[in-house]
Amino acid sequence: MPLLSLTIFLPLLGALVILLIKEDENSVNNIKKVALWTSIGVFLLSLLIWLQFDNNNGSYQFEEKFRWFNDFNFSYHIGIDGISLFMVILSTFLTPLCILASWESIKKRVKEYMIAFLFLETVMIGMFASVDILLFYIFFEAVLIPMYLIIGIWGGERRIYASFKFFLYTLLGSVLMLIAIVVIYRLTDSMSIETLQGNYFTKNIQIYLWLAFFASFAVKIPMWPFHTWLPDAHVEAPTAGSVILAGVLLKMGGYGFIRFSLGMLPEASYYFSPLIMTLSIVAVVYTSLVALAQTDIKKLIAYSSVAHMGLVTIGIFLVNSQGLEGAMIQMISHGVVSGALFLCVGVIYDRMHTRDINFYGGLVNRMPIYATVFMIFMLGSVGLPGTSGFIGEFLVIVGAFQYSSIVVIGAATGIVLSAVYMLYLYKRIIFGVMTNEKLTEILDLDNREKIILIPLAIAVIFIGIFPNIFIEPMRLPIESIISNYESANAK
Amino acid sequence: MHILFVPEVTLAILAVACLMYGLFSKNNSFNKATNFATLSLLFVSLLIFFDFSTNFALFDSFFSNTQFTKFFKILTTLGAAISLIISKNYFIDSKINKFEIPTLLLFSTLGMLIMISSKNLMIMYLAIELQSLSLYVVASIKRNSIESAESGVKYFILGALSSGILLYGFSLVYGFTGHTSFEGIANSLVEIDNLPIGLIFGLVFVLVGLAFKVSAVPFHMWTPDVYEGAPTSITAFFAIVPKLAAIALIFRFCLEPFGKFYFEWTQVIFFLSIASMFLGAIAAIAQKNLKRLLAYSSIGHVGYVLIALVSASDQGLKSASIYMFIYLVMNIAVFSIILSLKKSDAYVEKISSLSGLSKSNPVISASLAIIMLSMAGIPPFIGFFGKLYVFIAAIESQLYILAVLGVLASVISAFYYLRIIKGMYFDEPDDNQTFEFTISSESKVILSILMLLITFFILYPSLLTDVVSSISL
Fold first, then answer.
1. Per the domain annotation, does B290 fall within a domain?
2. What φ, ψ does residue B432 adopt, rounded to 5°?
3. Distance separating alpha carbons of residues B48 and B78, to the nearest angstrom
4. In-domain check, residue B36
5. Cβ within 8 Å, pair B462-A152
6. pLDDT, position A26
7. Long-range contacts of B151-157 (CB under 8 A, 24+ apart)
C-alpha cells in the first residue's frame, strides 16, 4: 500500500470533500468536522509509518518512485528517513490541533479556511517526504499560497502588509534555489536527494550553489538579519496560522540546511560555517534582547523563535553527532513548544482580543489550569531539565565545545536570556494582583482548549524524558552525513 | 502538388468568403460571420495538423514548413478561434458587432501564418504588413470612442515607424549580402568571420522592428495604450495571437540566416530580455487598470521567452514553444474571465473594482487567483513549468546572469499578481454593487478546460513536452 502517498494526499481529499459542501449556517459544523477527522486520520497514518519505521535502516524507507517528465530525469520520488520522519509527524500532529483551535475563533469563510489548512498540510508533508529535488521545490514554494491566504484573509489589522511581506520575502529567497536546482541537474543529470548526498561538485561551484540554497533556507528558518518578515507574519496571522508557521514552516529551513547544504555541499558548508556561527550567535543574543523589550505577547514569542532557530543553525553547522541530533531535537521541541505558546496566547486573545502584555496580570487567580499548562510550555521554551527544550539546548552546547568555546559562550548567553524574557513574560501575565477590571470575569480553559493543550504538554515532557525514542531513528542518517562531511573536508 | 500551402490558401479563400457574405447579407451578419470565421480557423488548424509534408520549402524558398512552424501555426489558429469565441458576447454587448471584425481577424491570422512560415525578407515584410494593417483597423473599430480611436492611431503610427525601420534593415541586409532569402543570406555569410558593420546595422534595425512587434522593452510603448484603449475583446486577441507569430518569426530570423553570428544578435536580445522582464515587472506595480496591467505582464512574459532565444539552442527552441503555449493558455483563461465579468452593468476594468469578488463569485475568483499565481510562476500551477523550461535552456547555455535576473524579476512581478488576489480576497466590498458573470456555454467549456490544464498540468507534464520534443527549425 502506498502509505506515504496516502498520508500526503489524504488532506487534499478532505479538502475536496469540503469543496463539495455548500457553506451555510447548518453545514459549517460539518465542514469543521470533515477537516478535523481528515487531519486526525492523517495523524494516525503518520503514526503507522512511525510504527513500521526501521531504525536500523539509514536510507529512505516507504519509497515510491514514478517517472514524471519524459524529457528530463525528474520523478515523483518520495520516501522517509530518520531526519524527515519527525518533521512529518510534527506536521500531522499540529494540524488537527490547529483546526481544533480555530473551531470558535474563525467565523468567516470557514470553508476556505479549512481547505487552505488541509492544502497546507499536504504541502508540508509532501515537502518533507520528497526525495526528488524538483518535487521538494514545488512543495517548498506551494506552501506560500495557503499561508498567504491564511494571513491575508483571517489575519489581524495589518494582515495585508504582513501577508505580502511574507510571500515576497520568502519567494525572493527561494527562487534562487530554483536556479541552483537546475544547475545541479545540468551538472549531475540527477534529481534525487539520496544519490546527490556526497561531494560531487568542485569547491568553486559548491560555494555558489551553497549561497543560493542559503538564501532560501536562511529566510525560511529565519536567520538574523533575514528574520524581519517573521514578527509581522506571526503577529498578524490567526492563532492557528502562527502555530503552523512557528511549528512547521520554520523547520523547512533547518531541514533544508541538513539535506542540501550539509549533505550535498560539504566543502562549502565547511567554508561558510564561521559565517553561520556568527550570524547565529548574533541572532541568539540580539533577538533575545529584542524579545525582552516587546509588549506584544505574540511578537515576543516570534522573536524567541528566531533565537531558538539560531541555536538550531549552530547545532547543524557544528556537524558532529551531538550538534546535529541536538538541532533536530531542538527543532521538534520548538515545533511543539512554540506552537503551544501561540495557542496559549490564542486562548487569552480569544477572550480579551488584545495581546498587550500590560493589559494582563494576575491571571493565575482566575485561570489556574491555564497557568499550569502555560508554565509547562514556558519552561519547555526556557529549557528546564525534564522538558523537551533542555535536550536540544544541552546537546547543542555539548557539541559546540568541540567547535569553539566562543560559540558556547554565545549560545549559553542566549539560553540564559531566553530564561529571562520567558520568566519575565510569565510573571507579568500570570502572577501578581489582578488590577485590570476587565479581567475579573475571564474564564479558565474549556474542554476544547484542554483537549488541544494537554497533548502538547504531554509531548513536551515526553520528549524531555525519553529523547532516545526520537534520536534513535535519526542516528544512522546523521552519521552518514557527518562521515560524508568529514571525508570531503579531510583533504 | 505542393500540399503545404493548402492551409494558407484555404484561409485566404475563407476570409474572402466571409467578407463577401458580410457585404451582401442584408441583416446584421456579425453573428454568422463570427461563427463562420471561428469554424474556418478551426478547420485551418485541422488542415495544418494533418499536413504531414513538413520540412518543405516552396517558391524558391519563400516559404517553408517545419515542426516548429507547425506548432506555432496551430497555436495561432486555435488562439484566434478561441479568442473569437470568448469575445463574441462582448462584441454584441458593447454594440461593436460588425462583420468586419471577424473578417479582418481572419486576414490578420492569414498574415501571421505566412509570417511564421516565411523564409524570405520580402514575404516576411508583406506578411507582417498584412497582419498589422488588419490589426490597426480593429484596434480603432469602436469609432465613437476616443480611447479606441487614439489607440488605433497610436498603434498605426508606431507600427508604421517600426515597419519603416524594419524595411531599412532589410535593405541593408540585402545590400550587404545580395540576398533576400534566409538561405541565401546564410550561404553568403558562410565564409565570413566577422559581420561587416553595415550588416550589423541591418541586423540591429531588423531586430528593432521585430522587437516592436513582440513589444519588447524599449520598443513597448504602444502596448499599454493599445491594450487599454482597444475594446477588451480586441485586447484579448492582441494579447494572445500576434505575439505567437512575432515570437516565432524573431526566432526564425535570428537562428536561420544569422545562426552563425549568434554572438552579435544575442547581445541585443540579452538587453531586450532583461529590460522587458524588469520593466514589465516594475511598471505594472503602479497600474490601476486591469488591461494595462496585463499589457505590462505580457511585456514581462516576452522577456522570459527572449531568454530562451538568447540561449540559441535546441532546448531554447523547445522551451520557447512550451512557454508560448503556456502563455496562450493563461491569457485566454484570464481574458475569458475579464470578458464576462460585469459590475453594475459595466465591464470590470479597474483592479480596485474586483474587491469582494470572492464573496459573491467564489468559483470565478478562485479561478482568477489560480491564473494569477500561475502567471507569477508559483508551483504547482502551469506557469511555473514555463519558467522552469526557460531557465533550463538558459542554464544549459550557461546564461547564469540571465537566469538569476529572470527569477528576481519574477519575484517583483509576483507583487502585482498578488495584488489582484488581495483585491478579490482580502478587501471588503466597498459598495453595494453586485457582480454579474455572464458567459456563453462555449466559453464556459473553454474556460473549464483551461482551468483544468492550468491546475493539473503538474500531474502529466509530458502531455506537452512530448509534443514539443520533436521541434526543430
1. yes
2. -95, 10
3. 11
4. yes
5. no
6. 84
7. B151/B225, B151/B226, B151/B228, B151/B229, B151/B230, B152/B229, B152/B230, B154/B222, B154/B225, B154/B226, B154/B229, B155/B222, B155/B226
Average pLDDT over residues A52-65: 89
- Rounded Cα distance, B369 and B420, in Å: 8
Q: pLDDT at residue B58 above 80?
A: no
Whole-complex ipTM: 0.93
Quickly tell me which residue has 489582578 as its cell. Answer: A434
Quote the cell numbers at residue B160: 508604421
Mean pLDDT, residues B164-170 taken together? 94
Quote the domain boundaries for residue B216: 3-468
Which residues in chain A have their CB less than 8 angstroms from residue B373's CB? 145
Q: Is A50 on the interface with B (CB under 8 A)?
A: no
Average pLDDT score over chain A: 91
B76: Cβ–Cβ under 8 A, 6 or more apart, which residues? B109, B112, B113, B116, B241, B244, B245
* Chain segment A141-158, per-residue pLDDT in tens: 999 999 999 999 998 888
The answer to whether the peptide bond before residue B380 is cis (omega within 30 degrees of 0) is: yes
Take residue A213 and report the three cell numbers written for it: 540554497
Residue B473 lies in a domain: no
Is residue B432 pLDDT above 90, yes or no?
no
Q: How confident is residue A393, by pLDDT bands cut at 50, 70 and 90?
A: very high
Q: How far apart are CA B333 and CA A27, in angstroms?
A: 32
pLDDT of residue B55: 58
Residue A288 amino acid letter: S
Q: Tens of pLDDT along A277-290?
A: 999 999 999 999 99
Question: Which of A71, A172, A179 is the closest to B403 by Cβ?
Answer: A179
Higher pLDDT, B427 or B371: B371
* Cβ A324 vs Cβ A316: under 8 Å: yes
Which tens digit of pLDDT belongs to each residue from A1-51? 789 999 999 999 999 999 998 878 888 889 999 999 999 999 999 999 999
Which residues are CB-neighbours of B381 under 8 A, at least 6 positions away? B370, B373, B374, B454, B455, B457, B458
Cβ contact (<8 Å) for A182 and B426?
Answer: no
Q: Is A165 an 8 Å CB contact of chain B?
A: no
B469 in contact with chain A, both atoms CB, cutoff 8 A? yes
pLDDT of A5 reads 92
Residue B404 binned pLDDT confidence (cut-offs 50, 70, 90): very high
Taking a C-beta distance cutoff of 8 angstroms, is the pair A211, A226 a contact?
no
What are the grid coordinates assigned to A400, written together?
A: 559546540
Rg value, chain B, Cα: 21
- Has residue B437 been placed in a domain? yes
Our count of domains for chain B comes to 1
Kindly give, in sequence order, each residue whose CB lies less than 8 Å from that of residue B256, ignoring residues fewer than 6 positions away: B119, B182, B183, B186, B473
**What whole-number distance in Å separates Cα of residue A156 and Cα of residue A105?**
12
Q: Which residues, listed in sequence order, are joined to residue B289 by a DSSP beta bridge?
A: B350
3-class SS of residue B66: coil
Grid-cell match 485566454, residue found: B332
Q: What values do phi and psi take at B227, rounded to 5?
A: -60, -40
Task: Give the Cα separation of B370 and B377 in Å (integer).
Answer: 11
Parallel, antiparallel, or unpaired: how do β-strands A75-80 and B63-65 relate? unpaired
Distance (Å, rounded) from C-alpha B111 to C-alpha B340?
Answer: 29
Amino acid at B114: I
Longest dimension (CA), chain B: 72
Report the distance separating Cα A38 and Cα A16, nearest Å.
11
Instruction: Report whether B240 contacts B298 (CB < 8 A).
Output: no
Residues of A154-169 as b/e, b for ≥16 C-beta within 10 angstroms?
bbeeebbebbbbbbbb
B157 part of contact set with chain A, CB < 8 Å: no
Please tell me the distance in Å from A422's CA to the nearest CA on chain B: 34
- The pLDDT assigned to A491 comes to 62
